[in-house]
Amino acid sequence: MKIPFLNLKLSDLKVTDEIKESVLDVIERKEFVLGREVVEFEKEFAKFVGTKYAVGVSSGTAALLVSLKSLGIGVGDKVLTSPFTFTATGEVIANLGAKIVFVDIDEKTYNIDVEKVKEYIESSKVKAIIPVHLYGLPANMPSILNIAKKYNLKIIEDAAQAHGAEIELKVESKKLKVGAIGDVGCFSFYPTKNLGGYGDGGMITLNDDILYKEILKFRNHGRVEHYLHQVLGFNARLDNIQAAILLKKIKYLAEWNSQRKQIAIWYNEGLQGVGDLILPYVPDGYEHVYHLYVVRTKFRDKLMEFLKQNEIGTAIQYGVPLHLQPAYKNLCETAGDMCVVEKVAKEVLSLPIYPGIKKEDIEFITDKIKKFFQGV
Fold first, then answer.
1. Which helix (H) or strand (E) holds 270?
2. SS3 of 256, please?
3. What dihedral do alpha carbons 364, 276, 5, 375 form, nearest 10°?
């Protein structure tokens, strides 16, 4: 049996015909930039997340960049974030001339360690924080909200991997989806995401009227009228064809997320107590949407090779934390030591998880993993 790490065809089976029809309609109308599909998709995504506004942009990276710029983050401003994430989270900070401050992660959730955030802020002036909802699990937003309020910080949620993830805010006795908790939420529609397009795409979600107008300007060359540019902006618009595709796919997002959760249950049942495996941890009141199903083991590289020999695809997210990447040399500082993330990065392994994968596939994978640990 051959099981790829990712199979995008399976989840797209039921929506392919709808997408083809929608894309052809855009082509026939020749409405390619900021067309009606973009407007409709923005409304649908805002409704899904639970925010007043959503602004379509060209990628998840563009969502972060435009958000930071619109919030006034610039040269010399310190921005806290996790080093255990895709490079886009860090590079947008540096590209605006701001100062990246990497904070170590919590060993259970792999999200930013809020205690270390508190320690750093108490001794240094910080302008904003970018919590990353890694692998589909929300960061500790209740604590981050309290910190932001106390120190007047802006919160930019990196929700690129967490479409539909929720967290219970016990003080308010309600659940909120990620992207509706901070000042802005930033999403990616890269093809591999829980809601993925057929190319690049992104979204910014928010509730603030004034900030919304700023974001609209910065995503479209600083434009307020056709040839009137109030500020220097970016070409960061969401392509209308991608919007048409995503408008069809968003109808199935809740169903696909439910399938991911069920697959995670199968993994948990099959791998509980196997070897030294550490399975995904989900705190009470948090809803994980399993963009990735990630286990940890000290035998990571050997297990990965064993699974490869058995035609099971795996991946590592992320093997080299950002503070150790050559691109960030002399561009960042760290809030204390990075011992947890450096340990975790050597042990994480992502197993296949995607809508359409069958229970027997998961059983095959878990049986092979059990066999591996019998020989360790």
1. helix 253-271
2. helix
3. -50
pLDDT digits (tens, 9 = 90+) for 273-291: 999 999 999 999 999 999 9
- Cα–Cα distance measured from residue 128 to residue 124, given in angstroms and rounded to the nearest whole number: 12
Angle between the 114-121 and 141-151 helix axes, to the nearest 10 degrees?
Answer: 10
pTM: 0.96
Hey, is 69 helix, strand or coil? helix
Q: Which domains does the chain have, with CATH numbers?
A: 8-251 (3.40.640.10), 252-374 (3.90.1150.10)
What is the number of H-type helices and E-type strands within the chain? 13, 15
Cβ–Cβ < 8 Å for 348, 295: yes
What single letter denotes the amino acid at residue 24? L
For the segment 120-145, the average pLDDT, to the nearest whole number, is 95
Token pair recorded at residue 254: 């809740």
Q: Residue 166 forms beta bridges with which residues? A: 177, 287
Task: List all residues 6 or more positions away from 340 whose beta carbon is below 8 Å from its beta carbon.
Answer: 104, 105, 106, 107, 113
Residue tagged 């930071």 (tokens):
68
Query: What does the block give as tokens for 10?
Result: 């399976």
Phi-psi region of 336 (alpha: psi -120 to 50; beta: other; left: phi over 0): left
Instruction: Please give the radius of gyration of the chain, using alpha carbons only, rounded to the nearest integer.
Output: 21
Q: What is the DSSP letter of 137?
A: P
CA distance 269 to 277: 13
Do the Cβ atoms of 264 and 250 come closer than 8 Å?
no
Beta bridge partners of 202: 57, 188
pLDDT exceeds cutoff 70 at 171 = no
